Amino acid sequence: MAASIYPDYPPDLTSEQSAYLLSNVKDWSILNGLAVRPSLSFVSKEVDPSRSLAVTAPVTLFPSLFPRRCFEEARAIQTAYNELYALIARDEEWLREIVEDHLLSISAYPSTVPTLITKSSLPSNPSIASISQGLASAHTAYAPSKSHPPLPLCIVFVVQDPENNAFDQHALASTLLADHNILTFRLPFSATLAHTSIPLDNPSRPLIYKPSHSPSTAYEVTTLYFRAGYAPTEYNSSESWNARLHLERSAAIKCPSILTHLAGSKKVQQILATPSSPHLERFLSSTSSAEYINRVRATFAAIYPLDDTAAGKHAIGIATDAGKASGYVLKPQREGGGNNIYGLKIPLFIKSLGEDSRKYRGHILMELIEPPALRNSVFRNGGVTSGEVIGELGVYGVCLWHYGEEAAGPKILENWEAGYLLRTKGRESEEGGVAAGFGAVDSVCLIGV
Fold first, then answer.
1. CATH of domain 302-368
2. Known binder of ligand: residue 72?
3. Is position 362 annotated in a ligand binding site?
4. What pLDDT, on a 0 to 100 scale, did the predictor assign at position 3?
5. Domain boundaries, the chain
6. At the topology level of CATH, where does 3-301+369-447 sit?
7. 89-121: b or e for each residue (b if 16 or more CB lie within 10 Å)?
8. Nearest Cα to 320, choosing from 349, 342, 357, 341?
9. For binding ATP, which residues are annotated in this chain's numbering (predicted)?
10. Distances (CA, A) of 18 to 21, 22, 55, 425
11. Is 423 labeled as ligand-binding?
12. Alpha carbons 304 and 225: distance in angstroms, whole number
């Protein structure tokens, strides 16, 4: 996709057109929950001591050009990933062997931004509605109450405190109430043990939640939606570990469970995507054709371990050679942006770890994905920056399953693609996390290339 094919996109605007567009984007973003709490570097604690202000999340002013064929293939293959991770989460022994000694984290950022403009080249993106439907499906699958006497049911969002990135979560909660008549509550991860309990005399292990604002009222939790508990820094005490174990032991459906959390780790990605790895067939060969498995594999970039295997030694050779490392990124088992080491910085980082190979075994080495650069404008912290940008497409999915007999695989109850997120950053930027302040929420303008 050469930029010269569309030299006049995005269009140059007059100052009046730019002001009009910017005003509408700001208002639409706040109206639709595309907002964040401002960082302390932008609005100081003295100005906003109660953390009550909100600003528009970083957003592009124009949808970015994206090949229709690639976009449609990404959406089509998404349900295969759902099934793959359900199968991986089932295989505890395999997971234990793969991710032992690693801490993992994942994140989400459901977006409603592409509904701002709807034309044939701008596909709809009902991610809030689709993800809400997925949570509602879990809620329905759990019912009825397992308590005696029965308690009213709810969904609990396990959140960070404070939480800058809360407004898309509120959009999900509002949709669950308006479209599905499901009550939701927000529970800071740090307050888990204070406000939830599992009755010792009930073998069904229902999770009981009592809101801090109404401690005499009890609800039974059908579904836990984790928007916290992903980063190692959140497990800084025995209480935090006990809180996660407490939730995992309950009957509530977890989104995700700890096993699914581990299945989504970068180490598992590396095991699946290392060239000539047999592990993808291990999980999909019984349910998918060789052609379909190859379609999944075609979405992988080459990823290598840093260990004593042949692939690991090959990767260490690259990571320690300034002449070869420029086309790679070194990733720890973290999410959220700001954690990766790029290009010529990799050999210096490896050298800083010394001779103890255990210090870098937790990292993976991945070939850099280099999409073509496009022009766009990004609105962030009240200002607009224009220039060359690159995008990263992610496709959401909903998958609900349960386990039957020990030897059987998971029974898939629901499995669908649930919208997308396009994160765009400046061409020279190494990170792309929106919540971390590196990228911007974007949408696609599909083209036939």
1. 3.30.1490.50
2. no
3. no
4. 45
5. 3-301+369-447, 302-368
6. Rossmann fold (3.40.50)
7. bbbeebbeebbeebbbbbebbbbbbbbbeeeee
8. 349
9. 266, 331-340, 342, 366-369, 392, 425, 431
10. 5, 6, 19, 20
11. yes
12. 31
